[in-house]
Amino acid sequence: MKILLLTHAFNSLCQRIFVELRQREHEVSVEFDINDRVSSEAVALFRPDLIIAPFLKRAIPREIWEHHICLVVHPGIRGDRGPSALDWAILNRERHWGVTLLQANAEMDAGDIWASTEFPLRAASKASLYRNEVTEAAVGTVLAAIERFRNGGFIPEPLDYRNGCVRGRLRPPVRQADRAIDWQRDDSETVLRKIRSGDGFPGVYDQLLGRGCYLYDAHRGALSNGRPGAVIARSGPAVCRATVDGSVWIGHLRDKQSSHPFKLPATQVLAQEVAHLPEIDGYPEISLSERNGVAYLHFSCYNGAMSTDQCQRLREAFIEVRARDAKVIVLMGGSEFWSNGLHLNVIEAAASAADESWANINAINDLACEIITSGNRLIVSALQGSAGAGGVFLARAADLVWARSGVVLNPHYKDMGNLYGSEYWTYLLPKRVGQERANRITQRRLPMGCAEALELGLVDAHFGDSSEAFLASLRQRAEALAADPALAGLLTEKARRRAADELAKPLAHYREAELARMQQNFYGFDPSYHVARYNFVYKVAKSRTPITIARHRDKRWAPEPVRRANA
Ligand code: COA
User: What residues line ligand 1, using a CB cutoff of 6 Å?
Assistant: First the structure.
């Protein structure tokens, strides 16, 4: 089927639906909903059988929905309407939430229902719920609706608030006042809920050490010794604020009035104000657990972005783990992302973006080098969450890459202003997948699902439809590896291969050649990388859909001739 994805942006959900539909051999094209004219033009060019809107911020024009079936993904239960579906669900402590697929009509979110699914609402941030439960449920409803559409004869159910199954209702947009924190009254649980309801966007606006900031990335703290609202400690990127019954860690802030008005580590935004505070362990960023001969190194970098400092700390932690007894080390990443490579926001805020880019890529390379040269340990990258750009190649530095089945990879750098990339990808990728496939993967600039990544050799296995299922199976597999008498032989073979590779071409040569290209990206005449990074960090809206995903705008693509009814 020809399916047009009409969307505000090619976000994680849209990417996932894109890969799922392509995997099922649908012909998929994407158009950003920039204005009515552009959307109508896309429909005229592509002539889709079905239009799916995974992520829209405004209504579909009448001239489109009158002539085509348009199914809109709404991240809410049946009957829920409005632009703040998940925000309200979190604020109102809903126990269950859902996704509903509606047929677009004249009234926003009020169309006939093609499918809906519910799930238990975890205590997690809005972005986390969106990337996990909402995405899984949305994929399920979209696939179910496509089957119904293909089979024909399906009559969608009109929205009827008299129906007992319809629990939702129309809700206004959440305002800052709805999630404002009252530090004198709100307990930790309430503070966490309010911050989570606005994380990743827009954040909760609050006053912090005399600065007006938006708060993100909140976690329960163990300290309980401060005046409510006071900032009492720091840990990694985070600051700790006392609440009436304990404390919370806040990892990231956005100070709209500052010269860097985007999300940054809290200790960077408040560098001077918190310099005197004690640095303690507490913010859950890098941690280690060990079980049955397997060491699990967790690194939960907010949004998967890894700054110079984070890469250095992670490298130290990795070296420490490697010195322990466990023969199998699992690199766990975080629950949302495994890694998205360089920390573009921290780079953007640096006095010299070029110098910080250089330091950051070297720090990530140092970490990759340690992983590649861990001859006497078997290293597994376990992708619970997605990975992009350098993060994918960092994962590939391990001996094995295992991914949760719903994970989407973006194994390319080119979208970031034609960045060449490093992380030893010129060594790792051809070795794993062959040169021809390596070129295809890096040039294509498309998201990739796990089935394709497995086929190409970018991952070695994928399993688990949910994070819980993935983690349970991961433990079993890792422990089986650790207990396998064949492990010693595997490690010997690994060390032999590495030595042979080193002899053929030293790792340092790959790094040198990659960094020579990166130096051009950072310091050369072509400013593309700096422009692309600025646009990414400042979230400059795209003025058109990239040709890589807007197939109907690709001159090499020809639509099939219109079939006449009597032909
Ligand atoms: N540095 C800083 N922030 C990053 C980041 C990075 N490398 N990668 C992602 N983020 C942030 C985004 O700005 C966004 O922030 P928000 O919470 O304020 O909305 C959040 O992480 C989620 O990213 P988003 O782009 O919305 O996720 P996605 O699932 O739609 O797309 C990627 C995933 C990987 C395709 C996309 O995030 C991306 O291109 N990242 C940049 C990768 C890169 O070029 N790294 C540098 C070279 S190694």
Answer: 11-12, 200-201, 263, 303-305, 340-345, 386, 388-390, 410, 413, 415-416, 419
